[in-house]
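Weekend entry, working from home. Most of the wet-lab plans are on hold until the incubator is repaired, so I used the time to fold the two sequences that have been sitting in the queue since the last round of cloning. Logging both here for the record. First:
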Amino acid sequence: MIGIAHAIDSLTPTAEWSLREDVITWHSIDITQPTDSEITAEVTRLQAEYDSNQYQRDRQYAPTGDQLDML
């Protein structure tokens, strides 16, 4: 599950901030804090991206040694 922290990191990767019980404390005075709607939109975007790549997480390969043995 993608959360607020993932969204803030995605939107402002160099910002300094803290999150405690869903309350954001912004420490970067030179970087604008994202709005709640921007964070919500980013959570939605990141979750959709994560969900669309489910096949990659489900795909499993045999260990390299086993693959060589099969050849």
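Second, folded right after the first finished:
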Amino acid sequence: MSEQIERSIAKALSWRITGTLDTILISYLITGRVQMALTIGIVELFTKCSLYVLHERIWNRISFGRAYE
């Protein structure tokens, strides 16, 4: 059983939106600058989405931990 690429992308986006909002909040609390916090959050959104999809696709090819019936 394997996931389709569309599912991996949807999972990446939903998780990254949550993570990006967290990053923006933390960045704002540290810098005190809304523009800087948004810039950090947007850059992080795209880089981590790409890395997550790549990570999912690699793990999709590994049988470790899967139960086959």
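Plan for Monday: verify the second prediction. The mean pLDDT is 88.
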